């Protein structure tokens, strides 16, 4: 009964996170669609480089206060106060370092305008550190409703302000001011939704540091792995290439960030209650992966097949150079469910050193391959993106190795849920490629027709495949049962 209760809470938490992500992302996508028609790739490039640098130093000061509190058995006021105070201290020094190094970073990136942008951004980490630590109680209880309301409210307030600033300023400052406002409103809202009022304390800093030292290193290397490509592109290629890469990345990863990532927070909070039950934990993990890949695999094949149509309709004709980049970047989603689930498991088990070593291997591989391309005087953004996509195979291999050797999770449970959707997705991709030349309507109609056809082809093929494989792949048997029961309940309710 306890496991069923935890699973139910995880599912409800996932739904609230999903609602939050969909609403905020919908607002964010609308905002981006408007902004890319007001601002240029250069503006997005400057904002991207500033955000990368700022986030890097934030990672260097990140001690995982929220996760430390969530995993603690006894959540006392002293624990909350110590975590809050330590976070403020580190974020203050983070902002100071960004301000001091702003000129050197601007010179290194060959972008003098970055100096003033980074100076302005240096206050953002310090402001964000004052967020009410008491809202962690919501996550410990798997109650994401208040957090959903807050995130949506912040987006609704910041969205029109950012658009208005873009119309007036017509440059990257609109984006950066929007980030600053978002952080300030989030801090104020955190005290509005939870009555807890933190106070300064240093009593448990040493205890938290025992957990946080690996968390700090892991978040830093993880961030470097995920952003070293854009950072090096800013060094090797013109700034507009970084803008193209960043915007393409945002749209290419929408299926994962909006459908799968919301489950992560409830997944982490839920496994804290299942960590001592290995069979139940393995079942929860593989079911999560099955759901993730059921959505991710067809999405990445679909984005690759429709890359030109998506860019033309969503981003506009002047962004057409982003089409091949968008298509290639979509394949990076293949590693994301494996990685995000592993991060949560290793964090709770205090085995973050394995994540650090994987990240270091990938950082060296990406940096080396990009440097080789640069030495060969290659300036085509799509070539760098292709190299980044190829290196994903190495990353997946490392992830599977850790699953098997460290967590002792049978790969016979993991690999089938990854590969089963590939066949119907590849067939769907082929069908879409054949149909595309036949359509002669306006671009938005063509895209809608292709999306509908793709969904119908994949759903029919995948449904049949799941029915055939349900005895050999229990995760898809579980999902098929959920889908069937949901359809029956819907029919029963409508009769």
From TrEMBL:
Q: Write one Pfam family the protein is assigned to.
A: Polysacc_synt_3
Superkingdom of this entry's organism? Bacteria
Q: Does this UniProt record's set of keywords contain Transit peptide?
A: no
Q: Check the record and name the InterPro entries matching this protein.
A: Poly_Biosynth_Transport
User: What residue ranges are annotated as transmembrane?
Assistant: 12-38, 44-63, 84-105, 117-138, 150-169, 175-193, 288-307, 319-342, 354-374, 380-402, 414-433, 445-469
Keyword annotations of the record = Cell membrane, Membrane, Transmembrane, Transmembrane helix
- Its membrane topology: Multi-pass membrane protein
Can you say where in the cell this protein is located?
Answer: Cell membrane
What PANTHER family does the record tag this protein with?
Answer: LIPOPOLYSACCHARIDE BIOSYNTHESIS PROTEIN WZXC, PST FAMILY PREDICTED COLANIC ACID TRANSPORTER
Instruction: Indicate the family of this protein.
Output: Belongs to the polysaccharide synthase family.
User: What name does this protein carry?
Assistant: Oligosaccharide flippase family protein
Native source organism of the sequence = Vibrio tritonius
